[in-house]
Automatic annotation (TrEMBL), chains A, B:
Transmembrane segments: none annotated. It holds the Pfam family ADH_zinc_N. It comes from Ficus carica. SUPFAM superfamilies: GroES-like (SSF50129), NAD(P)-binding Rossmann-fold domains (SSF51735). This is Enoyl reductase (ER) domain-containing protein.
Amino acid sequence: MAEVSNKQVKLRDYVVSGSPKESDMVVTSTTTKLKLPEGSKGVLVKNLYLSCDPYMRGRMSKSHDISYVEPLKPDSPIAGYGVARVLESGDPNFKEGDLIWGITGWEEYSIINEIHTLFKIHDTDVPLSYYTGILDFIPPFLPSLQPNKGLNLSLYLFTLTPLPSLQPNKFVGMPGITAYVGFYEICSPKKGEYVFISAALGAVGQLVGQFAKLSGCYVVGSAGSSEKVDLLKNKFGFDDAFNYKEEPDLDAALKRYFPEGIDIYFENVGGKMLDAVLQNVREHARISVCGMISQYNLEQPEGVQNLMNLVWKRVRMEGFLVFEHYPLYPKFLEFVLPHIKEGKIVYAEDVVEGLESAPAALIGIFSGRNIGKQVVVVSHE
Amino acid sequence: MAEVSNKQVKLRDYVVSGSPKESDMVVTSTTTKLKLPEGSKGVLVKNLYLSCDPYMRGRMSKSHDISYVEPLKPDSPIAGYGVARVLESGDPNFKEGDLIWGITGWEEYSIINEIHTLFKIHDTDVPLSYYTGILDFIPPFLPSLQPNKGLNLSLYLFTLTPLPSLQPNKFVGMPGITAYVGFYEICSPKKGEYVFISAALGAVGQLVGQFAKLSGCYVVGSAGSSEKVDLLKNKFGFDDAFNYKEEPDLDAALKRYFPEGIDIYFENVGGKMLDAVLQNVREHARISVCGMISQYNLEQPEGVQNLMNLVWKRVRMEGFLVFEHYPLYPKFLEFVLPHIKEGKIVYAEDVVEGLESAPAALIGIFSGRNIGKQVVVVSHE
């Protein structure tokens, strides 16, 4: 069999500290036979889309201390979530022509032996790249992801939350199901309720806002730039939005945007914003705590003072981790796929073409350059 | 009809500021005909037990600012919760001989015209004084107590929480149903779970601890003196207890008492204790927020820093006000009465005899002199 060229993006060496740089990666080309080795139980795939995610920073460090997921190997193709076409399969669950998503390599062709990390794509009527984003759900196949096994979930989570060198408000994986669980399961929204979302242009926030509109709620989001505020109002259909950096008094801002108070707060930032929300909750408000990204880079978290309002207003505040809601994934797909197909849900992607662009795209998410989920197209087939 | 003597405790004049003093009240005697006025639709009662409650401080001030419930009248008998026997009734719902509880006067005989504040006692197989305490439930008959009517509940609540001049950890009314709702409805306890209660010798805390033991939980309480710690362990059946004033490091203390972590926290104090609990919650813990008494006298509440643990541990934290759970009152009685009769629930009362002792008893609750609900016996009949 003839060999074909196989472009690859490799990690040059472990990143010791700080943000990774483009020069930490190298784009090279090798050749490969488009054939599985004799007796292989893996799959040979052609990669189509690759996902750039903040957690990948952790895997670029040698130490296990900052990432439960094992480090990448220097001088090997970077591994990450992607969408691919099966060219040959040694496993009965996959056959030639299948579309899959899961952990693959940053290269044109990969042989994947860890086939338990792969999932067949059944619905191809939506952009395939969405399987690295809105439709993504890291299933609990890794030991660290299985609840009730005594493993330290928070270690794993560390890889999903920004490291000190990362920008807040960036994409942390599984935004679709996270927004779904955090909004529908935790908040029990009712038509006409007042919903506030912080970090609203984050991958999760923008979806929560759209879900809330679908549920007939009034939705206001906060974000950190006027460009983002415009997008929230004009692209994502929020009823209103504001730039929190331009509001010296968050309590006053919320009173302006919610004269009737807040029924549902989707909490992504914590600290002062949470305190201001607590001053503006309505009776029986629900606060879904998804994250507190404003606090991650602080040595000491800010103190939240207005918790007694949980009593006065009879408020439920609940944290969740999406891993635990794995059984809801089919229900989520059933809910979200029709909306995507009908164009009722907007999902923002920042797409670059070609593996050559991949290192810059990955670096970009750490400086907040992207607007929307960062995706690399390897091939349109 | 002959007149009988009627001893009374009157408010001498409004208390301007600070704790009330015995000299703010006067014990006098008058005479009364044991007969309702012609055409009265009220009831004539013989008072048996009177309740001393912190909220009464508010009624001793002239200003409505510090108490939604209207001020007492100087030179009139003090009004408060009590248990009484009906001697004559102008209302078809009550008849001679009935035992009632509700708002009555600090005197031997009262004519009560506000009969909508009265409730008939059906179960007389428990100490009648319990109807001023563990079995007490202020029903939503006052406009201020009816939810969804747009009235300012927090104003009313102010009268139920200690004023600046009051001692924390004292009795704030309706402890039985508060403990019941806050523990069973909010915490959904399961056998074998680890329960922590702050202000555990408070009227609510001591009952939550006993309910938790009845549910097969492991229960530890914190309190502010070694005498109280002894009572928790030896009288109220807590598995363990500690004096928080002797613990410079609350996190370390909780790690010592809960090496496995805390499943349920019944929150009565807030601030540093809540922060320490958040460092020791188990996965899926529930925090029932009943009050934050450590914070009421502070100009600025302490900041709570460890709220991100709500996410890591998937914790639900929920505030409640017992008023909203009025429909559960019959269910609560059905639950608690048999336990009281069988002696499975200990309810601490601090009982003094005679109206002459009432002023000192009322003053005592503001300096923390009492251990248990303060009750005055007017007559054993």
